[in-house]
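Protein modeling request. Please complete all fields; requests missing the sequence field cannot be processed.
Requester role: graduate student
Desired output: 3D structure, token encoding
Chains: 1
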Amino acid sequence: MTDSLDTPPTHERVASLRGAQAASLGRRFWLRAATVGLVAFAVALALSFASTLNDHARLDRMKAHGVPVVVTVSNCVGNMGGSGSSVAGYVCRGTYDLGGVTYHEIISSMTTFASRGSHVAAIADPSQRGYVALASAVKSATSAAAFVVLIILTVALLILVALMIRIRRRVRSDDAPPR
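Delivered output (179 residues):
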């Protein structure tokens, strides 16, 4: 005959941790958390669209009405790439005169090094004369490509919202009292 002390009963837990039982987070909590996440995603996406539209409005304005200037480079610093072994681009500052005012600004779109004192062709924004970009970058820039990623993210958001609605309906039907 076997000893009942050696064999634990199947209806009881063999081992338990000390302390209170961990509370389980319900489905409603996770649905609310996912909803908050989707709202944050939607807000970030809306801000990205607004920023991209603003940048491309500036680019179109500079293409149509930009003021050509010659910028004298005052300094140029390289930006390190992710691994730290190569230069990913440059931040160059320069001075230019426009309408009797001398501006000391960052030259936007610099991808190559320019030595101190060198001159680069640039275009100043007519609405914000303190913003200047390389003339070659303004002429070659396209605006449609920047929206591709935002459109893909919008489609992903819509799919996630549709899934969330479907899951919410299923949870509500599971929680409904039987008739």
